[in-house]
Amino acid sequence: MDTSFKNYIANSETKEWKSLEEDGVETKGIFIKVLRYDKETKRAPTFLLKFEAGASYPYHNHPAGEEAFVMEGEAYFNEQKLTKGDYLYTPPTFKHSVKTDTGCVILFIVPKEVEIL
């Protein structure tokens, strides 16, 4: 294992926002910054999402749960409003959608790929 910290740091300020693209999923107005990419699973379990005002992510299942921390703005997870500084843990098989009226930036930790319902 590489023990140099510099190889495990992601400086989110120097990363560019990229449009979130998922096959068959409407992601207009959602942007991503990958903080950690897992080469074994070929996916990013830790990332930032930026939602423009009015953007939403459809109803989905989290087979292994998730963690979310609102860094800016506000968002609705189903009907529950979260604002800057709020942390949400959802247990395995928890289902929800995400939407925002005003825009937001959220840190997500998602151990397994979501399933769109």
Q: What is the oligomeric state here?
A: single chain
Task: Indicate the low-confidence ranges by residue numbers.
Answer: none
**Class from secondary-structure proportions:** mainly beta
Q: What is the number of helices?
A: 0
Q: Encode the helix/strand succession as letters.
A: EEEEEEEEEE
Q: How many beta-strand segments?
A: 10
Distance between the termini: 38 Å
Radius of gyration based on Cα positions: 14 Å
Shape type: globular
Could you describe the largest sheet, including whether it forms a barrel?
Answer: 10 strands, antiparallel
- Binned, the helix content reads under 10%
Strand coverage percent: over 45%
Average pLDDT metric: 96
Overview of this protein structure:
- With 117 residues, this protein is mostly beta strands.
- The protein has a domain at 32-96 and 106-117.
- The chain is 0% helix and 52% strand.
- The chain has no helices and 10 strands.
- The chain has strands at 18-19, 30-38, 43-51, 56-62, 66-77, 80-83, 87-90, 94-99, 104-109, 115-116.
- Strands 1, 2, 3, 4, 5, 6, 7, 8, 9 and 10 form a 10-stranded antiparallel β-sheet that branches.
- A hairpin with a 2-residue loop joins strand 5 (66-77) and strand 6 (80-83).
- The protein is globular, with a radius of gyration of 14 Å.
- The mean pLDDT is 96.
Structure described in brief:
It is built from no helices and ten strands. It is mainly β and 117 residues long.
Tag the structure with descriptive keywords.
about 120 residues, mainly beta, ten-stranded antiparallel β-sheet, about 0% helix
